[in-house]
């Protein structure tokens, strides 16, 4: 009988269940030199101990042994993938990522080439040199952190996702964003800064985050109207405005305060600013249905990191959150 924990180990380490079952069946009833029910080779024991596996439990607990075997399979698969990827002048999975996230192939090629010249850092991972600061957001978006760090193709997909997200407004219709680079802050009307300060004081939502949303949604244009009918500085649709807004959505202070109320409601529900932003873009129910992750909608997958990127820029410029 196959232990139920084998299924969980296969899912956790993202290896084929059939491969684990085959290894388990091959060891059943045999005497072998390896350790435990999966016959783990002794050469792996120091590596497994460094990854949190107790030698005693590897010998005595079947589920711990199976989990360790799943990790070994994952590492071996990564090594095979890495050998295939590095043998290619241009990795096929890089082209696939470009198609998946709708980034032009020449842009991805230039990005990939530039990353090969980045100096290696302990705080960057894989061939795309993913900064450690992106890992929490990538987890929310459904990227397995272990794969992003160690699997070349997962790492490239994550890098292209970041590339797509940082330039989301250039392609995604209805955002109101006109394509100003993320590191080029447009002139922000003093009144909007004041309104953001007021809304932040009323709700506790960071001022820089409110301005980042306004920047992403409308380019700080209080009169903006999208093709989908979203209105004003914070791009409210009428049904959401009826719940969170007062007066006119084209009034900057009204819009900023309503946006802050909505973001605060979402943050209290999801306990996460990235998920609150996902809910602002796609609706809170979409986040719930995605299992408290960023929903698998192209616009939302681009929107969240784009706003967070703008938030970092604004917060660093002002010196205040």
TrEMBL record:
SUPFAM superfamilies named in the record: Lysozyme-like (SSF53955)
Gene3D superfamilies in the record: 1.10.530.10
Pfam hit, one: SLT
Domain Transglycosylase SLT: 198-290
CDD domains found in the cross-reference section: LT-like (cd00254)
Assigned protein family: Belongs to the transglycosylase Slt family.
Protein name: Transglycosylase SLT domain-containing protein
Species per Swiss-Prot/TrEMBL record: Acidithiobacillus thiooxidans ATCC 19377
